Amino acid sequence: MMKIYKVVTLLLSFGLSVMGFAEVAKTPVAYLNAMTIAHKMLNYELFYFVQQGEQVDSLRYRHANYLGKEYAQLLQLDKAREEIILRDDRVSYFGEFQPFSLASDHILDNLPVLLYTDFDQLDGYNFIDVGRERIANRLARVIRIVPKDDFRYQHEVWIDEENYLLLRADLLDRDGNILEQFKVLKPTVDDQFIYIVEPISSLILPSVIVDEQKNSPLLSWDPKWIPRGFKKIKSGTQNLSGVLMENEQIESQLYSDGLASFTIYLVQNKGVIFNEQFWRQGKLSIYSQTFGDKDVVIVGEIPLVSARHIVQDIQQNQLIGEPK
């Protein structure tokens, strides 16, 4: 009886904390912060799709918060069954492959990074309240996140005005074209979804894959220029021996501004000269340039103009030679 009382009390406190925060959600940033809190604290189910180009994925996401811990299941609804489980700061993947786990406190696959963003710390964007709009049979507040420069993408989000769950998120380029869309078809907020805690808790999860990259904060090179608001998150080297080629090392640096991210790779050139090679699929840009005997490659969720600027302004240091 005492255990049930504690659970009910906790659920009520979670609901009050979200709704209490929502009472002051009168600015765009306040709405966005209420959205991130609701996503972590409420018990709910979402049926939604993610579209990038011609590819459309239909998914179901169930989430519960029990005694301050998050439990979630993300299920692919079409084609081969693929399932992602969140438990104990571990994200586990199951499907037609060897199951594996990653150390993480949230599921990012097929969910917008907006759900895990600290909007109070976000730099380089303006936040605009566009008004109300009906979506998924719910009344939503529409917020536009517009970059202050041309070196990142813009976002438009629809937030449920009652429970503050994200109902839709569009990622748009500078011309307003949709690069990726997250859209909820049926949202359900109900404490009944606490039932997922028991079966998830009883699962035997696969082992966590250890990141073999060696942290090397002081590499022999650095980008001379990066867009405003981006910060280096991680840098290091990784040995690809036995994977792609013998005794090959790759150096990398990961940058993020809280919404967008990109990684710069430095590898030994193998005789193929990359003279401003570029490619974009949806939100992902790939840009490469050969400097002497090195290839610099950038991969990230940024416009090609940003990738080109970053690569061409790499501080040479130990990179010998001019671009080929």
TrEMBL record:
The keyword Aminoacyl-tRNA synthetase does not apply. Gene3D superfamilies: Lipoprotein localisation LolA/LolB/LppX, MucB/RseB, C-terminal domain. It comes from the Bacteria. It is found in: Periplasm. Residues 220-315 form the MucB/RseB C-terminal domain. Residues 1-22 form the signal peptide. Belongs to the RseB family. This is MucB/RseB-like sigma(E) regulatory protein. It comes from Otariodibacter oris.
